[in-house]
Structures are given as C-alpha cells and as structure tokens.
Design goal:
8 copies of one chain form a homooctamer. The first copy, chain A, has 11 helices and 11 strands. With about 250 residues, the first copy, chain A, is an alpha/beta fold. The first copy, chain A, has 2 domains: about 100 residues, no CATH class; about 130 residues, 3-Layer(aba) Sandwich (Rossmann fold). A 5-stranded parallel β-sheet of chain A has the order 8-7-9-10-11, with helices on both faces. In chain A, strands 3-4-6-5 form a 4-stranded mixed β-sheet, with helices on both faces. In chain A, helix 4 crosses helix 5 and helix 6 runs parallel beside helix 11. Chain A is globular and about 70 Å long. At the G-H interface, strand 11 and helix 11 of G face strand 11 and helix 11 of H.
Amino acid sequence: MDTRKLLNDVKDGKISVDEALLSLKKEPFEDIGFAKVDLHRRTRQGTAEVIYGAGKSAERIVSIVGSMVRGGQEPVIITRIDKAKADELAKNYEISYNEEAAFATVGRLPDPDGAGTVVVATGGTSDIPVAEEAALTAEALGNKVIRMYDVGVAGIHRLMSHMEEIMDANVIIAIAGMEGALASVIGGLADCPVIAVPTSVGYGASFNGLSALLSMLNSCASGVSVVNIDNGFGAGYLASMINHGKK
Amino acid sequence: MDTRKLLNDVKDGKISVDEALLSLKKEPFEDIGFAKVDLHRRTRQGTAEVIYGAGKSAERIVSIVGSMVRGGQEPVIITRIDKAKADELAKNYEISYNEEAAFATVGRLPDPDGAGTVVVATGGTSDIPVAEEAALTAEALGNKVIRMYDVGVAGIHRLMSHMEEIMDANVIIAIAGMEGALASVIGGLADCPVIAVPTSVGYGASFNGLSALLSMLNSCASGVSVVNIDNGFGAGYLASMINHGKK
Amino acid sequence: MDTRKLLNDVKDGKISVDEALLSLKKEPFEDIGFAKVDLHRRTRQGTAEVIYGAGKSAERIVSIVGSMVRGGQEPVIITRIDKAKADELAKNYEISYNEEAAFATVGRLPDPDGAGTVVVATGGTSDIPVAEEAALTAEALGNKVIRMYDVGVAGIHRLMSHMEEIMDANVIIAIAGMEGALASVIGGLADCPVIAVPTSVGYGASFNGLSALLSMLNSCASGVSVVNIDNGFGAGYLASMINHGKK
Amino acid sequence: MDTRKLLNDVKDGKISVDEALLSLKKEPFEDIGFAKVDLHRRTRQGTAEVIYGAGKSAERIVSIVGSMVRGGQEPVIITRIDKAKADELAKNYEISYNEEAAFATVGRLPDPDGAGTVVVATGGTSDIPVAEEAALTAEALGNKVIRMYDVGVAGIHRLMSHMEEIMDANVIIAIAGMEGALASVIGGLADCPVIAVPTSVGYGASFNGLSALLSMLNSCASGVSVVNIDNGFGAGYLASMINHGKK
Amino acid sequence: MDTRKLLNDVKDGKISVDEALLSLKKEPFEDIGFAKVDLHRRTRQGTAEVIYGAGKSAERIVSIVGSMVRGGQEPVIITRIDKAKADELAKNYEISYNEEAAFATVGRLPDPDGAGTVVVATGGTSDIPVAEEAALTAEALGNKVIRMYDVGVAGIHRLMSHMEEIMDANVIIAIAGMEGALASVIGGLADCPVIAVPTSVGYGASFNGLSALLSMLNSCASGVSVVNIDNGFGAGYLASMINHGKK
Amino acid sequence: MDTRKLLNDVKDGKISVDEALLSLKKEPFEDIGFAKVDLHRRTRQGTAEVIYGAGKSAERIVSIVGSMVRGGQEPVIITRIDKAKADELAKNYEISYNEEAAFATVGRLPDPDGAGTVVVATGGTSDIPVAEEAALTAEALGNKVIRMYDVGVAGIHRLMSHMEEIMDANVIIAIAGMEGALASVIGGLADCPVIAVPTSVGYGASFNGLSALLSMLNSCASGVSVVNIDNGFGAGYLASMINHGKK
Amino acid sequence: MDTRKLLNDVKDGKISVDEALLSLKKEPFEDIGFAKVDLHRRTRQGTAEVIYGAGKSAERIVSIVGSMVRGGQEPVIITRIDKAKADELAKNYEISYNEEAAFATVGRLPDPDGAGTVVVATGGTSDIPVAEEAALTAEALGNKVIRMYDVGVAGIHRLMSHMEEIMDANVIIAIAGMEGALASVIGGLADCPVIAVPTSVGYGASFNGLSALLSMLNSCASGVSVVNIDNGFGAGYLASMINHGKK
Amino acid sequence: MDTRKLLNDVKDGKISVDEALLSLKKEPFEDIGFAKVDLHRRTRQGTAEVIYGAGKSAERIVSIVGSMVRGGQEPVIITRIDKAKADELAKNYEISYNEEAAFATVGRLPDPDGAGTVVVATGGTSDIPVAEEAALTAEALGNKVIRMYDVGVAGIHRLMSHMEEIMDANVIIAIAGMEGALASVIGGLADCPVIAVPTSVGYGASFNGLSALLSMLNSCASGVSVVNIDNGFGAGYLASMINHGKK
C-alpha cells in the first residue's frame, strides 16, 4: 500500500476519509473463528500460508483449506497430516498425498522455475520421512529436487560417489540424526548454502535429536545453517527461497 | 579436476603416469607443522579459508597469514582476534582492524558485487559486536550491508520504521540475545531468507544464549535458519553465499 | 481472628478457656481422609480452593466437591477434568463443562465485577485449550474476557489489528508455544501487566515448552511475568486478582 | 495518534499531505547512533524507558541519559550500574546511587501514589542486592515499599511474625535462591498477587538459580508468577504497574 | 567369618585345607541362573534383600521369592509389583498386597520395635502412592508409622495443625512434587532427620520431578537429605535404619 | 509454650492480657537489621543456627556472631569463611579455624556424646576440603569422627582394608566427585545410614558435580541418601543428628 | 585399488580409459532404492555391514538381507529386530533368533578365533537384554564369551567371587544402569580394556540412562571407554575388534 | 596371591598363622597421610598409578612421586601439571616436561614394544594440547605414535591424504571439539578400534564439549568408543592397553 498515494487521493477527494481509514485498517486475513487465515501472504511474502496439520482436527484443516481456496491461494500445502485426516480432506478436495512424509497438496503444483537444483541428502534410511517432507515442499514451491539418500559419513565413499551432484547443486539440504556429521562433511565439500536438518533418529544419548542439533550448530564448515529437529518443511521452504532468489 | 581428461592425457602420453599420480594425490593444502593451510579453498568453494583467531597465538596467526599470502589467497580474514594479537599481526602486514568486532583483514577488499543488500539487524545495543562481525564479514566478501541496530521487538515501532529496508533486502541477518524474538518477527515480515544469530547477551535464564537459540530454532516464521550462538562470521559468510548465488 | 479480642473475652469470662482454645486451634479445613479440604480459603484469600482434576479419580473429585458444596464454597472450579470424570461428576451435581479446556464448574458463576477487561491472546490455534482454561477461569472468577486467538508474531499485522483491545486491557494473558515471542511483543505494546503462559505446543527443539518458557522469562519488555508451561488456570486466576485489586 | 482526525485534517487542508505523511511515519525515538532512545514510552506505556547499565560503557550511559533528559524523560532509572560507571555519570548529572543494588536515578523521584503497599521479602541475607533493586525500582516509580528481609521458610516463625504486613500488602515480591520455597508459602498466605524472583544465591545443585526458578514456576499456590533469575528490576516494575492499576 | 580362627583350625587340622578354601570362597548368594539371590544380607546388613518388581516377569519374581523363602529370608518385600504380577505371586504364596503402592509382602511382618515414630508427610493427594510405598516399607521393617497427607506449604495452616506429631517424630519422610517446598518447611520445624522424596507429580516445568529434586537438594534447612524421585521404598528403608539405630 | 496454661493464667488474672499477647507474639529471633538471628533454635531444634560465611562480609559475620554470643548460643559454627574474614573475626573473638575446610568455631566445643562413630570417607584426595567441613561439623556437634580418605572404588582393596571401621560405624559420610561410585559400594557393605556427598571434583562430563550427584541419587544400595554438591556441613550436621538420636 | 597400477594399465592400453574411469568411480555398494548396501565392508573393514532393525519395515530388512546374501556377506547380523519382523524374515531365510536381545543372524556363525575371552558383566538382571545383544554380537563375530550377570556393586562380594574370570579376560564389557558404578570397580580390578555400556534401566533421576552415562564417562579407573546408552551391539563389536587384534 | 598354596603352607607349618594372616591382609599401598599410594598397581594391572596433577599442590605431587620412586614404580607419569608445579618437581627429580600438554615424566621411558602404531588425529589446531597428552601418554607406556593434526572433516581431503596411516594403525585416537564428526568419519574408514576424545574447543552451543561428546557417543560407525571431554590421558592409556594386548 502506498501511503502517500492514499493520502493524495484523500486530499483530492478521490476516495473518502472512511474509505481511506478502511484501507489503512483492513486486515489482510480472514477470521474463521478459531483461526485468522492469511490471504495476502502470497502477495506479501511470495508464498501462501502453509497449514501445519499436527494437532488440528480434520474439520479445522478442511475449513482452513476452504478459506484459502476461496481466497485463490492454491496450491495449498498441508504438512504433518496423517492418513485419516488426509482421507477426510480428500472427500472435500482433490489432493495429492504422500503418507511417508505425511504431506498433502491441494491444487496444481508449479513447474520448476528455480535457478538450479536442490539436493536433499540423508545420513540413513530412517531419515527419509523428514527428507521427503523437505523434497516435496521444495517441489511444491517450484524447484527441481535431487534425492541422495543413505549417504552417511560412516561410509564416506557413498557420499563421495555423488560429488558431481554436490558440486552442481544450488542449495543442499543435509538431513541426519545420531551424530549429524553429514552437514559438516557436505558443508566442507560444497560451494553453495547447506541447510542442516537434525532428525530425532537414534536412541540413548541422541536425546531425541539434541545430539544432531548441537553437532550441526557447531559445524566447522562455513555456509551451514540449521532448522528445527525434524523440520523438513522449513528446510524445503528456505531452499526454495534461496533457489529462486529475490523476486 | 577433470578425471576423464587426465586419464585421456595419460593415454595420449601428454602427461606421464607419475605426473598424473601426483596430480591425483597432490594435497590442496600447505602443511606448516601445526596446521594444514588450505590453499585451494577459493578455487574449490569460492572463498579462501578464514582464520579463527581465538585460542591461536599471535605467532601462529602470523604464520598462517604468511602461508595464505604466499599462496595468493588475499584478502585474508581473521576473526576473534584481540587487540594485542592484531597489533602483532600489524607489525608484519598492513591490516584493517575493528576492535569491537575483533575482526581483521589483510589485503584489499573486493567491491560489492552481490545481487542485492544484506541487512544486519540487532535486538539491542549489546548485540553490536556480533553484528559487526557479521557485517564486516559480508563486506569483506563483496556485499553491500545495511546496519539496523537496536530494533528489538519490545519496541516494535522501531522495527516497523524500517519496513522499506526489510522489504528490499536480499538476505537479512537477525541478531538477538535474551528471548531472541527478533528473528520470528522479521521472518514474518520479510520475503527473503533470514539468518538468525542468537547471542549470549542476557543473564539468568538466558543461559548464555540457550534461550535465544531455542527461540530461533522454534521460529514460527518460514525462511528462518540458525547458526551458532554469537557466530556473526558464519551468518555473514552464509549471507554472502546467498546474495551472490551460484557462481 | 483478633487474638487480643479473644483474650479479652476470656478475661471477661465471655467465652470459656476451652472455647478459646478451640478457636485458636480449629483447623480451617475438613479432613476427608485422603485430603484436607480448605473451607476458609474464600474468607482468607478471596477465592475458594480450586480442584486440580488430573490424577484424581472421579470418586475423589466428587467427594471433594461434596465437601466444598457442604461448606458453602460454590462456585466450585475443577480444572484438568476429562470427559469421563466430568460425566461422573454430572451425575451428582449440575455442572457446566468445556471439553476442549477440560474445565468444569459447579454452582452459579458471579457477574463480571473486575475493574476492566482481561485479554487472552494466543500465538496459534493449537494454544487454544490452554487459552480457554485461562479465559474460563477468569470468567468464573468474575471478569470480562476478550479472546484474541491466532495472533502470533510471524504475521504481526494480525496482532496490530487488535491494538485497541490491547491498549484498553487491564491485564493481558499472552499464550504461546514454539518461540513464545508473543509475550515480548505484547509486553512492548501494552501499558498493563502481561501474564505469559508458555505452552507445550511445538516439536523438536521446543522441548515440550522449554523454549517458550525461557523466551518468556527473558522477555526484554517490562511488565511481563511467567507462569508454568500450559498453566492456563494460574494465569486466569492471577489476572482476576490483578483486575479486582485489593478487596 | 488519531488517524481519523489526521485524515480529516488532510481532507480539510488543515495540514499538508507531507505533514500528515511525516506524522504517520515519525519515529517515536531519537537515534543516537548506537541506540534508538525511546522518548514516547512514558506517554505510550506510562513509564519512561529504563537503562540497563551492564555491558554499556559509561560514555554510552551518559549519552543515553542525556538524550532522555533532553527529551524530558526524568526521572531516569539506570540498573546494573557499577560504582565506576556511576561515578562517571555523577560527573555529568546529579544522581542518587545505591551501590549494593547497583542502582541509580537521575532527577526527582515521584511521591508514592499507588493504591497500597508493595512488600519486598527475601529468604536470606544474600538475596538483599536483588531485593534492593526491586525495592528501589518500585520506589522510583511511586510506590510505598515495606522491606521484609531474611524470612526464609527454614525458620517459618520469622515469616509468621509478619502476617500483618503480608495480609495488608497490595503486591508482594518474594525473592529467594536455593530452593525458592518462599514464594509458595507467601502465595499460600497472601490474598494479593505475588511476584516471585529466583536468585542465583546458592551453590552446587542450585545451578545458578535454576533450582529456585523451577520451584517458583511449579508453585502450588495460586496468584504467583515469576520473572527472570535476579531480575529485581522487572519485579519492582511489574509490582508498580499492579499497584497503580490502569491509568 | 573370623579369618584367624579359620587359619588356626587349619593349622590344628580341625578342618581340611579344602574345607577352609571353600569357606573362604563360598558365595553368600544363591545363583538361580538369571540372578544371584543374596541370602546372607539379613545377617550382613540387618535386612533381607528386597525385590524390585518393575521390569521383572512374574515368573522371575516367583522364582526369587522361592529362593528367599527357602533361604529363610521371610518376610520378603516386593516393590513396584503391579496387580497382574501380584495375582500370579498369590497363586504360589500367601501375600499381603497394596495396589495403590504396588507393594507386596510374603510372610509375617515384625511388630514395631523402633525407637520412636516415623512420620510420612505429603504435599498433596497425588503423592500418596509414593507415600504408601514408604509407609508400608517402614511398617514391614518394624516401625510405627504416622501418615500426614495433603499438608503442602500452599496452605501452611494444615501443616501447622500437626506440630505435635512433627515435634514427636524420630524420623520424618517429606514427600512432594511440583516445587517440593515441604521438605524445607518441615526441616525448619523438626528436630529429627528429614528424608526428602521428590515425586514426579506435576506438569510442565516440573520436568518429571526435577524441580522438586533440585528444591530438596538445595533445602536451606539442616538435617534434610534426599533420595531418588518417587523412591518411597528407599526413604522407608532409611527411616527404619535411623529409627532402629545401630543393632 | 503451653497455650492452655497461658489462657488459664489470663483467666485467673495471673498475667495480664498484654503480657499474654506479647508472649504469643514474641519473635524467637533478634532482628539486627540485615538479618534475623534465631536465638531459640538450640531449644527448638537441638542445635544453634549455623552461619554460612560465603557472600557475607566480615562485618556482618562479626555482627551475627556477636548476637549469638550475647544470646548464649555458643559454640558458634561458621562455614565457608575464607582466611581474610576469619582473621577479621579473630580480632573480635577467640576462634578455632581450619583453612582447608574454611571452617571456624567460636566457643568451647562439646565432648563427643553420640551413640557411636561417624566415618567420613572420600574417593580421592581432592575431596578432602569437603570432607573436613563434614568432619569438623560433626566434631563441633559432639561426635567421634574417623577419617578414611582416598579410598575410591578404582582401587577397591584400599576400601576393603577398612572393613572393620565400616562395619563398626554408626553413620558413614561418603564423599566423592567424578563418578561418585563410593556411596554405592559403601552402602552395599555397611549396615548403617550412608550420607552421600557429591563433590564438584572432576572435569568435562562431571559437569561440576552433576555426574556424582546423579550417581548417588541412583544408588542401587539401600540406606543411602544425598545432600547438595560439596555440602560437607549438611552431611556432618545430619550425621550428628542420627548419631545422637532423638533427645 | 592400486591407482598406480591402474594408470599404468591405462598407459599400456591394457584397459580402456572408460574402464579405468568406471573402476575409479565404481561404488562399493548396491543401491537398492531406499538404501545403499555396503558390499565391500567385510573386505575394507573386516566385518560385513550390520542391519539396525529398529525403524525399518520387515520388507526393507528382508530386502537388505537379500542384497547382502547375494553379495556373499554371510553371516548377516540384524539387531533390534522384534519378534514380528523376525518371523517375517524367517519366512525367507533360515535365521537364528534371540527374542530377549531382539537379535537375529542369517548364515553359519564362525568358530571362536579371538585371542582370549570376552567377559560380559551386568549390574542387575534388568540389564540382561543389552548384555545379550553384546554377547551374541561378540559370539557372531567369532569370540568366546563368558556371561557374568547381576554382579552390581551394591553387593560387591558377588563381583569379587568372579575375580578369576576378570583377571583372565581379554576384554570386559561392563553393563549397568542406575549409578553405573560397575565399570569403575571392574576397571580398577582388571588389566584389560573395559567397555562400559550405560543402560536406560532405572527411574527418576536416572533420566533414561544419563546418570549411568555420566558416571561411566567420569570413571576414575583407567582403561575404561564408553559407548551409547543401551548400545550392546557397539560394545560387542568393539570387543571383538580388540580381541582379534589387527588382521 | 595363591590362597590354596598359602593355606597348604600354613598346614605344613611353612609359615606361621600370623604371617599368613598378615599376607592375607597386607595393604598393597603406602599411606602417606593425605593419600594412599598404590605400589602394587604395576604388578596387578600392568602399569603404575598415574598422578593427576590438577588440584594437587606441588608439595603433594613431590611427596607422591617420592613414594612411587621409593617403591620402584618408575617411570612416573604426572598429567595436568602446570609449569610452576613442574619447576618445583624438577628441583627434586630429573623430569621430562611438555608445557603445551602439561605433562611430565620422571625416570627413563620404555622403548616402543606394542604390536603396531597408535595414530593420534585432531580436527583442528586447538585440539593439540589434548592430543599431545594422549600421544605423550602412549609413548611413555611404550607405543610408537603417529601424529595427524588438523585433519577435520570440513576439509575432508586433508584426512583422505592420510588413508595409508589410517589403514595401517592398530588403534586410532580421534580428538575433536565443536561437532566432533572426526570420530565417525575415521571410524567408517579404519578397521581398528577408534577411541574418541571430545574436547572443550568451541563456543556457544558447543557447551564446553557437550556437543562433541554427544556426537561421538552417537557415532554411526562401529568400533568407536568415547572417553571424557579433554581426557587425552585416558585415551592414550587405553590405546596402549589395546596395542599391547593381554600380557
């Protein structure tokens, strides 16, 4: 909103004081009772609001999706949505659903239009659900994604055989639980930003991901930053932002 | 190194087996006894190795700088270098030094050549040393930096008065101690990546930065990632990487 | 109890030594075997004892409610009481029950008689159960409550559109999980006490509410104090105390 | 600022578009280089900004005090200001200084005008510095303060002998280190809000105040809320807010 | 075993070398495959080994009880034994079982023969299972126990009405969750050892008993020591030891 | 105080109402400004108040000692009092001082009158300062103490050579840092109460005594309870209480 | 792979450039979609890859086993595989399965060929599942194992009766939960490496094995090192490595 | 000691009962007042006791060294001994001293007699003091040591250039702070035991070595075990034990 223009319009009588007041005050969201759905987010920040499905009932998810579809916010992304809720949602909208990642979308996805590729790497096979959340998020936001799973540092030759993809990537998402060393090793090899995602994979002194989290925060490689434990979505979103650059 | 080309050269007799062997084996670093100075890093990863001055004696710093200057790795960046060590270094090389940030450089810095601006914001005035480390790093790596200090969320109008810079930024570094809320608020306003830097500013239940760190990792805003507590350098480096895009 | 008057009464023979002794010793609670129900609390502290339902069997809850009703302590508030126990209680007493907040009352609630309004704000929709516990508690204690849900700082315009309610409030309860920044931002805007309630909403590095708790304790805004994680009742009770002032 | 009035003035030509624009944008703080001094805070929130002296140089403190005095923000409160800095400040302004609490004020303090008394209680004698910060803050903000020191629960008769002051108080600040039980016991006796301040007094498993902090957060008494470890200022400020009620 | 006498017997030919060797080596326990049941413990330490039922199958419990009964170690105490296992045990032996405390005994219990009374106090009603484990243990070891439940410090008059029992006790077991202040207050009133038992009762920042544990370890009252969270048995056992004095 | 007798005296006119009132209210401590010195503690709890010297100025210590000496509370025990403060105290009173334990007493100590011996054992030589605090406390309270230093479990034969003292003891204080295993091993050997004192001796993952503290709380031996890290005084005091039994 | 030989072969035309390239690049693992099965590990590191069954579906386990059997990697070890998955696996391969340890093997196990014996000791009976994982692993890798269960330090005579086995062992695995003192005591007695395995056995302040973990890391005995909580496999594997020496 | 032989000697009158008694009881250490110096340790466990210098006065160190030299326990190793204490020791004995490692020896060191080489690797140059403690310990115990410093995973080519030493090693000590990934990467490459030593090198979220410690405990590579933070001595000692095998 251009405040100067608005004020000039008021001065010139083009719009009334009340209209201007309304315009200054209008809330860029729809209040649907239990939630305020942000309908200007795509305009303001480049992507629509994303629905975090955990802890929301199927009814509330359907209701928020409805508000967003009405507001022209497709495609709608829903993360952490289990099979039962997804089935419920599917009764109301045509959805695309990945059960392992608990990830759903409503509406046609964009074609890849980022600057390069987003590589999603995991230390082990148990990290795949988080990795898929990251990969599907990045794809839903218009990125070409290369999956590089089970390349943990305890068998470093597995990672080394992928040097080409690593060197070609525009952004790399490094996902690992346990000791989380993958981020440091990739960070030392790559020449692009590395987004580290600690996972809660492990037991005992992994303390539900704390070990990998601390590891990644202390990475001795430059260009590495960290998101929350198991936050595949956050990593995919940020990767897309970096891969698309400033609009 | 193009392995196929190398092998073809061997086959064609253009280079000897021993030369090829050497080339395959040559270590891209200079071993100066107590350290292995990485001299190919600029080629391999786009920026030269950076010297972390804390816990290194002035002698060792001078010695590593020497190795890098000899290897044509200027400008050399030295972080966490106190006044006494900087004075010692200045006896050997022409340096540029900022005491508050404990940050030094040797050699001419590049002109800004990034895609846009890097905004460095802090919650309070006590966060400035970390912010300066971030800002000076980004500048030394060829970025235009806008400083936006003391804009903490407890007086949100101070932040709001900078909406223009926030919306224009290519990357934002949000630096805060105590409750670390700055990153979330900026993350909710901006449409570019936000690099959050928790600081050890605070007392009591801030637990030396733990409070801000957890806050930032749990940011409900998308596009936010986190580096280590007080790691201004890491944030500046990553910001530069994002601002320059893939080379 | 006025000790001087009691002693004078003894001296004047108005009451016997035994009566005085009894009066000095009488325990202001009813011992019902497994619990000592405080029946003087309303007199002594202005509000009757509140029953914490978690971990108490339906039988015990009914028994304590009985003791309080007999002692004229209505309305009786029962928190953390699940549907099954509430159903059991409803067989014995006419109750008002809110399932989302797991909150029940027995007896007629008072009309609002506080000095002003109590605003209950939440960062997200998942914080609503805790918010309702706070709001219902405040209402049961005679306060006018304004609910302001889903106004988290990642979309600060949602909060800003409520500036009027914030500036008008007598007390504000700020409820948030994850990074808990809501309390600081509201604390910086409001001119009344802000009671911060961290919630266990979140995952990974939220560590079941620890992140929000530390955030709120470190709030850089003045006038903010904190209660236990998920303690909606405690916040509602304290808000009522502040809103009613010294009786 | 009344936006409607402003817009009407624009419409009526009473003020120019540029003036209105300026008014809408004018930042309510003075930017003195390293800090943004909030000069509208007294108007907006009822009390002027308070200077946190720790980690600020004497020069910067003098500079901020200057900005505030110029802005008519007296009395100015400076917390955590050690003797040396206070001496420096005293060269420029007439100050009142308490060394034990590291607390200074510039300008005439107001007469007590709160609704009742603020009681400041401590568990031991080592908690006195924090208690004095709380008490002096409350006094500087216009409250009558009653000090009740060394009344820890290990000798509960010491606390009991003060029942009258406890029952008469409008707000009580309960300050304790070690096991922090004072807040619960006072909370169970009083009928007014209790602000609990954990202190870092103790050793071993007190973990620098963590023990008292957790204790106070888990208080089984209602009406108790908690501020950061050693945060006497925050408690005094909040107590004043409660004691003065909504302006 | 008197080594000198044994050696003299060998010298005098009263026992053979092999017999002496056996006697020096004989293990004072019965090896029943998966466990080594200590049958000399009553002789060595005054009480028989106690069976910790959690994590042991009913079969193994029955087997260990059998070994102890055969070894004349009655009464046998089994703690943390759930209803199902107790039922299984009851098929083989005549047992006495308390379900709330998950506590069973096999064999006739001794009459009270301690020096005085053991008082078992709890802060709330939710602490009763732990308290009963403590009380039943003390009773099974020959102590007169006085139960004093729901006397938490938030209503200190409830505790005060029991001053007589407190002053008369030989040992007091103070059991509390949440802020665990009970131990300090009792410790300040009593003139006998106080054994503090933190419980996992609470939520949020009670962190499963950590809050009460730290509180109790930091008790400012003398004569207080602490056992593990929820360790009613350990407290009852130690109380009996103190109450019986050196045999 | 016999309340019935007091009331009868009032009724019979033996004492006036005012005298009775005074008697009911008289505070059993002397208020010396910054502290309330408990002068009835010896009567009430069997031992006089003990002065914790850390964090108190020499002046304050002298002042409290003065109040206690005037109140007939000798011998006075002062713990954690460094050499400089002890020297200051010695200018005013004849003191006995142990620098390693930072422990002082004023007045003649009692002869040992406990039921048996108190054994003070340490794992290593670095635990000796804490051990001396415990031993000197016990001696000052009238106990015969046997010191058994440097008997840590890594050389279990050192402990085994002291079996006689262990079996003869009435109470054992087991003091250890690092892994704190001493308490468990002694607890398994002895038939008397074992008071475990974790010390902050160690480095790295000892986390200033946390490791030993947790170890001791989890002791698989019965009859073991724990006091705060480095709390030699608390252990000595409790040992004396147990060794003297109920007065 | 001998790089010089390869290059000579290229030069001599013995192999083509493409073949050499392939050989330099060939990944020593089979990519089966969701995992990269390491088939050269036995050659490279002396033992084949081991399958961690937790969190892998029966289908994936069968698929990986298949890849390994095809690659001649028998015997295949699968850890943390529950009964249901083991049953599924047994439909496809002849397996040996231990339910308590959740441990399976496919293929004939080797005869013991280590230098000496591996002793596996536990503190209690609840540690046996972890101990069996360790023992079965060591046996599957060709070691003679001596089990020494339930020899915790609270009854040190039980351990002492096994001095012969301790002194004869080549490696000792000391497994304990709760206070974890077993490792230190054994470490002080033995003259061979001791591998300490903390277990999650315990409750309250054992914090799921943290207590035992810290204890073992702080062992005052030399020759002790630690693996992750409950990591019986890791201990058995390392023990085998030490017992077999360098191949 | 052969008990059977001793007893036969008693029977045959070869030694008196008193001599036998003495022999059974004789303590294998010298009690020098503040410490019990173990003089049989070399016989019992293969190496003499090692003196941990931190927290011991120079006098005490000299005294213990004296006892050991008198007992024929040379060479004597003293760790964590600063320059001043070493100077003091050098006045009494001929010592070899390394200041960076704070490591001293008295007496001639043995020639290397282990089975192979011990490799000591560090992630960075700041880890060298810990590495030297490990290397010097291993050398003092008769091992050939290869130092491989500054080979951290952020520049993995530095580590790769040492594959030969890694593959040839008998034991590898992997020392790293910050994210501690070195142990996992080496563990994945080597076919010998890897002893991981976390160091306190780092800042912020390294939490004084906690990050590296957790990382190493969670290593996904087999054959890795961990010692305490900064415990170079422990690693060197254990490496020597493994390298020498069972004597």
